[in-house]
Every structure is written in structure tokens, then in C-alpha cells.
Amino acid sequence: MAPPTAAAAHCQDLHGCELPHVAVFPLMAKGHTIPLLDLACLLRRRGLAAVTLLTTPGNAAFARTALADGGAGDAAVIELPFPAGHAPAGGESAEGVACASSFAAFAEATSPLRPRFEYALAAMRPPPGLLVADGFLYWAHASAAALGVPSVSFLGTSAFAHVVREACVRDKPGASAQGDDASTGTYTVPEFPHLRFSLADLVPPPLPLMELDAKMAVAVAASHGVIMNTFHDLEGRYIEHWNRQVPMDGLVGREGSCWKGCIVHLAWDTGSHP
Asked: Which molecular-function annotation in GO is an example for this chain (predicted)?
């Protein structure tokens, strides 16, 4: 059965000009969903865009309540039910995952939503000008590209974590001399000499998580920008390093400005609504 479609509400600003339409597709995990709900609320409160959020039926009530409480009750919500027999083990939310090692299986189990996601994205009116989707939903970025919708990747962890990850992928601590100190058994991030890690702590993740990470990396590299849940005052040096070193064709920046290859800073809502 095809998922229901929705027309984004309030597609014009106070002057009658058409607003951009942004589709938002969070991973079904509270730590990934809440920041993107905050983003949706910010876009609606400031009249910057019409918003359509996509999620599964088991997560829709939480999303609608959060949008209403945040001043975005007029945002459209499209429910994407899993095909019969294809819901992730443990339920529709990552909170049901038994252990961290099972997270990759949960993320991969979202892929049966792809046909319904593609149908919903293609049927949106007005057509979305941008998709903001979680990096773990790597297949959604590929679908958006095939439909001609540019996408931006949301990464739920910090800029620090991703900068260190990029350095470790590049330098392969323990397997090469780059950044390694054999006498102390440590790895120092060359760009940040104050960051030193024990090689014993830098163990490879389980193979399924490595495979998922590789797919996510491809999707992030192919998207038009990155949104991270961070504060510039907290992680400025890492954000600036990413913006200098990671080549991306950024389409959007904070409040709609154009920053090529940028991280868009998504800080937690403090309750102050400018």
C-alpha cells in the first residue's frame, strides 16, 4: 500500500512569497530525532521554510507532540509503515535495541521503507527543495538524488567525534607510523597534538558497524552539506577544521546563507525563541 501524501502547510510567508519546502527524515532514535524536530520547529517559527517530516507510525505521535510544543504544529507528518514482516527486531525505535552491537542491524532494517519513502518524496506538494536525512539512512540520500532532490546529512554525534574518526580512518592507528608513538602505545592526532589516545582503546568496531559506517560515509560525501548537533563555542576548532578539510558542495547554511562545504550548527533549543 502506498503511504499517504501530504501537502506542506503554510508554504507562503507573510508577504505571499513561496517558502522553500524542506523534507526531514530522522533516524528512529530519540537522540537523532529530537535535534531534527528542533530544526523543524526553528524553520517554522522563523518562517524560513515549510516542513514535512517523515517517520514511522510508532514514532509519529512523539513527533507530532514535539512539533506542536515547539511551535511547528502546522508541519506535515507522513507516516511510513514497514512492509509486513519487515519491522526491525525490537520495534520501530532504536530504544528497543538490546545492545550497542545490534545497532547496525537496526539501522540496516530501515531499508525496507525505501519504496514508500521514494513514493512519498515524489508525491509531496509543493515538491521539496531539500531533504535533511540522518546519515545512517544512507539509502534515503541515494533515493533523493535519483529524484533530483538535494540532500543534507544529519550526524547525531559531535564534530570532535567525526574529526577524530576521519583522522583514524586516514592514519590507521597501530597499523602505520602516522601519528603513532610505539614507546608509549599511543596515537596522537597530527592536526591536534593535544589529542592522544591509547592504541589499546582504538579497537575496530564489529564488522557490521564498519560496513554501515562505510555506507554512511559514501552518503555523507555525496550529500550537499552536514548538520551536526553542536555548539561553535564548544567545538569551534573541530568545526573549522572540518570545514577546511572535508570537501563538500554545501547548499545551505545557518539561516539560509550559502556556505560551501560547511557544517550547519544545530544547537539545542534553550527556550529562547528569537
From this structure: UDP-glucosyltransferase activity
